[in-house]
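Bench log. Compound arrived from synthesis this morning; before running ITC I wanted a structural hypothesis for how zinc ion sits in the protein. Inputs:
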Amino acid sequence: MSLKTVLFIISFLFSSLALAAENISVISSGALKIHTFHGISNSHLIETKNELHLIDAQMTFKHARQLKKYIDSVGKPLVQVILSHNHPDHWFGAEIFSSQTPIATTANITKDLKNGGYRYIKNLKKKLKDNMPDQVIKPDVELNLGQHNWDGLKVIVEEYAEQESHHSLVLKLPEHGIMIGQDLFYNEMFLVASDRNRNKHWVEILQNFSANEAKHYKTILVGHGKNSDPAVFTQDIKYLNALEATLAKGLTQQQTQQEMIKQFPEKGGKGMLAISMRNLFNPH
Ligand SMILES: [Zn+2]
């Protein structure tokens, strides 16, 4: 290998590490660390004293490989990859991990993957080509709801039905005041709200979080956007209520989309708004 090649490889490694570092935020609480990889969606890596647990696996193989490289650099064994729900931006990348690490989710989400997973593959294959799977991921482990102990860390797993997706997980770490809710929460991003009935139920869930013990969690880790706090509950309720009021006007798809941008000019993720509009106006 020539010196030039070696230098190229070194500079490539540094540039990809730099890229990974830009995409990652880390929070610490005592011995616990949570590394968040902000790709198309967020993946959260929970680091305990001896092991790692990953929540969600990115949409593209490219991002999943970047994430895997970062996880390898942490230097502890990855014991499981948990899938929070069946949307492709959270599970398409799971195949990058599945030969070495068990994939875990609940029975309901496994069913959602089986029922809806292939449609995402069909719809996205032209766009993502080899950067995505050909098969729907088959989880290896059924994740039970309730209390778990991960290497001394108390984790409460909850599941919520009919909101952003059909079923979605929330992981609470009560000793640290951290709640990981994935796409139940979007921070300063357009919510992918696909069904008006589900949106109403989603608002109820968020209202309950604002009123019940969930409000005591200081740190809320979201599926899209930066790490947040309980203010994200009211932020997302406000958006969903505004969306419903706008939909009730009976405007066209394009007018509704423009109206939402006008009302929430500061939000990111206009591509996700377009997906949301397509789903609301052309339900499959
Ligand atoms: Zn998502």
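What the model suggests: Residues 1-19 have pLDDT under 50 and may be disordered. The first strand starts at residue 24 and ends at 29.
ITC booked for Thursday regardless.
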